[in-house]
Specification:
By secondary structure, the protein is of the alpha/beta class. It folds into two domains: about 140 residues, Rossmann fold; about 180 residues, Glycogen Phosphorylase B (Rossmann fold), CATH 3.40.50. It has 14 helices and twelve strands. The strands form two sheets. The chain has a six-stranded parallel sheet, with helices on both faces. Strands 9-8-7-10-11-12 form a six-stranded parallel sheet, sandwiched between helices. Helix 8 crosses helix 9 and helix 8 packs across helix 14. The chain is globular.
Length: about 350
């Protein structure tokens, strides 16, 4: 519950700041909060503080008044800027060192963040428990429920601009892939965290197996990942397409053209979920309960659930990365085939 007597029913904010600086998936998972806030406070000014390049997704939301791009090299300038705005509510969904500073000196009547270290008690006057046993969007909506909001339906509200859609269609056609694209599968094999990656030889085995029925693939990549995905494409052949460097919105437009996206826990897979594209994710240390939508048959996953250490959440494996090793290429192929037959 809120402290200082702050309740939704007795105080309607005129200015609200949402803070979710990074990462792509976390920013996307925060966007549904905006629509719920707008429904209850139609006249409020709702701003969103985020780092580039995730601001590209934030700008798509029509309920956001201003998208603020945070510069970590100007922390104190941002403290002054936020305080000058005189926000009534600051909802800090990141709750890290930088955002604690911004929230603490914001001057907002409601300063909300997730429960955690003692330092957060000195900053927030409204602390929200973290529950890993529910979907991450619901974890974020707990900010509002704990203020008196009832459980309500929400939507992603991620409508891509027509310019990016046209770009994706033109690029695919020039690459020999014609619309409609029923056999185009997006492949998102990369992760900056080694414990989330699958074995590259098994990725290749999956692509070669699916390629026998005419399936085409587009390999998604980000900073520092081009060489890896090009090596995969070379071993698969002409059916595997590696796009050029794209903006996030161009990447999203390519993802939207896919009949399915297969990969690990990463940004492209999360974008696909928000766009309603079917996905198959491989989870090792990740808890699928918090990262995979509940009850949505389009969003499937595989995990070696019989391991005692599964869902550990670690970024370094103290064992032999068994959680990903135990997922075979045959398991993935059969799962993808079953999803495509629905």
């Amino acid at each position: 519950m809120a402290t200082d007597g702050i309740k939704r029913v007795d105080f309607k904010p005129q200015k609200i700041l949402i803070i979710q600086l990074r990462r792509i998936g976390d920013v996307i998972f925060t966007l549904p909060v905006v629509g719920v806030l707008r429904k209850h406070f139609p006249e409020a000014k709702i701003d969103f503080l985020v780092e580039a390049p995730s601001d590209q997704f934030v700008r798509l939301n029509p309920d956001i008044h201003e998208t603020l791009i945070y510069d970590k090299n100007s922390s104190w300038n941002w403290v002054r800027r936020i305080r000058k705005q005189k926000y009534d509510w600051v909802l800090d969904f990141l709750s890290n060192g930088r955002t604690l500073l911004l929230t603490r000196f914001s001057g907002a009547r409601l300063r909300s963040g997730f429960k955690g270290p003692f330092s957060r008690k000195l900053v927030y006057n409204h602390l929200v428990p973290v529950s890993t046993h529910q979907y991450i969007v619901d974890q974020k909506l707990d900010f509002l429920r704990s203020l008196g909001f009832k459980g309500e339906p929400w939507k992603w509200n991620l409508n891509l601009p027509q310019e990016e859609k046209n770009w994706a269609e033109t690029f695919l056609k020039k690459s020999g892939i014609q619309d409609p694209f029923p056999k185009l599968i997006g492949i998102a094999p990369c992760s900056r965290r080694a414990t989330r990656r699958w074995i590259s030889d098994r990725v290749i085995a999956v692509l070669r197996s699916l390629n026998r029925d005419g399936t085409k693939f587009i390999l998604f990549w980000g900073a520092g990942e081009l060489e890896f995905v090009e090596s995969l494409a070379q071993k698969v052949g002409s059916s595997a397409l590696v796009p050029p460097q794209t903006t996030l919105l161009q990447l999203a437009a390519l993802i939207e053209k896919c009949s399915l996206v297969f990969g690990v826990d990463n940004g492209p897979r999360n974008i696909a979920v928000a766009l309603g594209v079917p996905t198959l994710a491989l989870f090792g240390p990740t808890n699928p309960i918090s990262i995979n939508p509940h009850g949505d048959p389009k969003q499937q996953y595989l995990q070696a659930e019989d391991l005692f250490c599964i869902r550990c959440g670690l970024n370094q494996c103290p064992y032999q990365h068994e959680c990903m090793e135990k997922i075979s290429s045959n398991m993935v192929v059969e799962k993808i085939k079953s999803m495509r037959c629905r």
